[in-house]
Amino acid sequence: MSGSGNETRTHRIAVIPGDGIGVDVTAEACRVVDAAGKAYGFDVEWTSYDWSCERYTATGRMMPDDALDQLRPHDAILLGAVGYPGVPDHISLWGLLIPIRRAFEQYVNLRPVRLLPGVQSPLAGRTASDVAMTVVRENSEGEYSRVGGRQGVGADEMAIQTSVFTRRGVERVVRYAFELARAQDLPVCSATKSNGIVYSMPFWDEVFAVVAADYPDVASEQCHADALAARMVLAPERLGIIVGSNLFGDLLSDLSAAVAGGLGIAPAANINPERTYPSMFEAVHGSAPDIAGQGIANPVAQVLTAAMMLDHLGEAGAVAGIGTAVDAALTEPAHRTPDLGGRATTTECGSAIVAAL
Ligand code: NAI
Ligand code: MG
C-alpha cells in the first residue's frame, strides 16, 4: 500500500497510558492510529508500559530505573496523563514526565488549537476562522527549575525559587517558533513580562530580537503576558504562533485551549527537534480524577495528539485523514462527549472517528 514499492512502513511507539482518563483516551487514540495505518499504508508496533501513580503506590517508583533506556529505541512516545489523588503531583511530575522531557531534550512543547466544527467557543460570536493558534512553550528550563530552597520555621519560614534562562535554551525555542511561523505563514508573538521581572525577561526579549532579525519575512511582536491573555479572549483572530517561557506557555496554552472549546480537544507534543531522542506526545489535559472511570472523557484531544505524532513520523496523509475524520465525527451531535454538550461515551466518540476514517 505504501507509495514507494510494496514495503510497509513500521513505526515503533512506546505507550504510557498512565492514570485516570489517560488510560481511556489513549486506548481510543491507538485504535484511530491503527485504523489510519490500514487506510494509509503503515504499521504501528506498540509497546505498552504501566508506569503510573498506581505503580508508585505499589512499588514506590513511578517508573523503573532503566525506564529511559527502555524508551530510547522507540520512534515516539504516546503518553496519556499522570497524576492521581493520593500521590502528590510533584512526585508524579518529577518521577516520570519531567525526567523524560529533560533526558530526551524535548525542549519544545507544542500546543496548537483550532475551533472544531460543532464545538462552541466560550467567546460569543467566534467561529472557526477566528480561533486557530499555536503556543510554543519552552519545556526545559525557565521557572520550572530545581534551584532554590526552603528554610526557617513558623512566621520566619521562607521559600526561594530561582528561574533559569540560558541563551541556548531561549534561542532554540524562539527559533523553532519562527520556523513554524514561516512554514505556516503566521505571525509570531513573544510573551514577556519585562516590566515586572527585571533580569530574565529583558534577557528573553534580547534573544527574541536577535532571532527575529534572521526572519525578516515573518511578522513578529512582543506582548506582556497579562495583556496577551486578555488579547487571546478579546481578539484571538490576530494571533498565530505564541512563544513563551515554561510558565507563561503553560498558562497561555490552557487559556488557548479554553478559547477553542476546552481541554477535551487540546492536543500537545514534547518535541526534540534534532530527533536525537524520541519525542513524546500527550494531550494538554491531565488524568481528570473527577470523571475517571465513568467512560465519558473526550478522546478528541488524545486523538489529535496521536495525529501530531504521525505528523512527526512523516505520515502527512494520515494526519489530514484524522483531522477530517474528527471534524466529521464532531459535526454529528450524537458523537459529542458531555464536555461538548453531548451524551456520547469515550468509546462511542472514538468509534465515530474510526468509522469516518
Ligand atoms: P485535568 O486536565 O485532569 O482536569 C481539569 C478539568 O477538565 C476536569 O474537570 C476534567 O474533568 C476536565 N477534563 C480534562 N480532560 C478532559 C477530557 N478529555 N474530557 C472531558 N473533560 C476533561 O486537570 P487537573 O484536575 O488539574 O489535574 C488532575 C491530575 O492530572 C493531577 O494529578 C495533575 O497533576 C495531573 N495532570 C497531568 C498532566 C499530564 O500528565 N501531562 C497535565 C495536567 C494535569
Ligand atoms: Mg498546564
Would you mind describing this structure in some detail?
- The protein is an alpha/beta fold.
- The protein has two domains: 1-110 and 261-357, Isopropylmalate Dehydrogenase (3-Layer(aba) Sandwich); 121-260, Isopropylmalate Dehydrogenase.
- It has eleven helices and twelve strands.
- It has helices at 21-40, 53-59, 67-71, 89-103, 167-184, 200-212, 225-234, 246-259, 300-312, 316-331, 346-356; strands at residues 9-18, 42-48, 76-81, 108-114, 132-138, 142-151, 158-164, 188-192, 220-224, 241-244, 269-271, 279-281.
- Helix 1 packs across helix 10 (316-331), helix 1 (21-40) runs parallel beside helix 11 (346-356) and helix 5 crosses helix 6.
- The protein is globular.
- It starts with 8 loop residues before the first strand and ends with a helix.
- Residues 1-5 have low confidence and may be disordered.
- The protein binds 1,4-dihydronicotinamide adenine dinucleotide and magnesium ion.
- 1,4-dihydronicotinamide adenine dinucleotide (NAI) binds next to helix 1 and helix 4.
